[in-house]
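A further point concerns the way the authors explain their paired sequence and structure data. Nothing conveys this as quickly as seeing an actual entry. An entry of this sort, consisting of the sequence and the corresponding backbone structure tokens, reads as follows:
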Amino acid sequence: MTQAWTRRSSGSMERKVAPQLLAGERILWQGAPIQGLMLRPLDLALIPFSLFWAGMALFWNIKTWDAAIGSVSRLGGLVMLIVGVYAVIGRFLLDGYMRRHLSYVVTDRRAIIARTGPWPTRLSLDLARLPHLELKEMPDGTGTILFGAPRPVRGNHAAGLGVWQPTLDPTPQFIGIPDADAVFALIQSRTGD
């Protein structure tokens, strides 16, 4: 039955993870986030806000440069414009880039989140000791599995970035995976062992 959960692509992920496996540990599932533009329900509010912010920043820059106002106002306007461009476009580009470098593995003991690229990391979560497990599923069957309660935005700047860009959220998660309900059920079945 565990073989039914295994997703094998080219076997390259399995070769990368194999040296990290504990003695007797078996891979039950492996996958990666969906690619391309990934919109979340929260983006219904974030996109209009970011367009408003970028528009106001552009207006501010045009007015300060035309009126020859001091350099501090110009610099502040440029910073606001950069933040606006990131919120409108940059966050989607960076999120897509980071998702291309993410891979996920579920073994009979752990969930592993590995990121390659310029900032490689590997996070290992013991399935028997997960504090919280949550599934956020989309109508198309893709979804995100959170390993831990979402962190509040106030007082935690990293959590605030996670609102804008899921790949920067400090809560460990399998972001945008296909057939998320089946993977969630697999993980849940292993947490009671």
About this structure: Residues 71-100 form the longest helix (30 residues). The longest strand covers residues 102-107.
